[in-house]
Amino acid sequence: MKAQRPIGVLFVCLGNICRSPIAEGAFLQAAAAAGVAARFRVDSAGVSDFHEGDPPDSRAVAAAAARGFDISRQVCRPVRPADFTAFDYILAMDQANLAALARLRPATATAWTALVLEAAEGRHEEVQDPYTGTAQDFEVVVDKLQRASRELVWRLLAGHGSAARRG
Ligand code: 4NP
User: Inter-axis angle of helices 135-159 and 58-66, to 10 degrees?
Assistant: First the structure.
């Protein structure tokens, strides 16, 4: 069988210190549990550069660790124009992120952009920003993204390369 190019998945939020680092870690955890981690190339980024170079928020690191995955070594970075061709899927946490991605999207873009929960579970629902919230709000984010990731792994494997999922 011909070696397959990994499927590129970029998770995006506002700051890239809370939700999208959790999304990246939860997706890698789900892909590893399913034995398909090598099929993916995964990263996360922010539509802002507020926290460029920073590690994830300590509350996000703690909530992830409590659910069995480590995000402490991630480094925050902003979305770049090249991401729109380097990744197959760019998955946003909320509508504001999606609107910002539409503004950043270059004419040459090939990536498919969507809300992460819509791509995973077909539900038009946001992953809400926990930044000004409580530890419990971070647990809710981890819950939602772990559940979504188990579904998303198979959806992306099944849908990758389909013209209907592009644009
Ligand atoms: P995130 O949360 O988008 O889930 O990383 C936020 C992090 C930082 C800020 C806002 C949201 N901020 O305004 O600095």
Answer: 70
Q: What type of residue is 157? A: L
The first and second tokens of residue 83, run together, are: 């991401």
Catalytic residue from among 83, 88, 94, 129 = 129
Q: CA torsion angle for 148, 152, 153, 155 (degrees, to 10)?
A: 150
For the question of residue 70 being annotated catalytic, the response is no
Angle at 77 between CA 73 and CA 78, to 5 degrees: 160
Going from the Cα of 92 to the center of ligand 1, the distance in angstroms, rounded, reads 13
Paired tokens of 68 = 């069995």
C-beta of residue 43 within 8 angstroms of C-beta of residue 87: yes
Task: Evaluate if pTM is beyond 0.85.
Answer: yes
Widest distance between CA atoms in the chain: 49
- Rounded to the nearest 5°, which phi and psi values hold at 9? -130, 120
Contacts of 102 (CB under 8 A, 6+ apart): 113
109 CB near ligand 1 (under 6 Å) = no
Q: What is the pLDDT of residues 1-33, one digit of tens each?
A: 556 799 999 999 999 999 999 999 999 999 999
* 104-163 pLDDT tens trace: 999 999 999 999 999 999 999 999 999 999 999 999 999 999 999 999 999 999 986 443
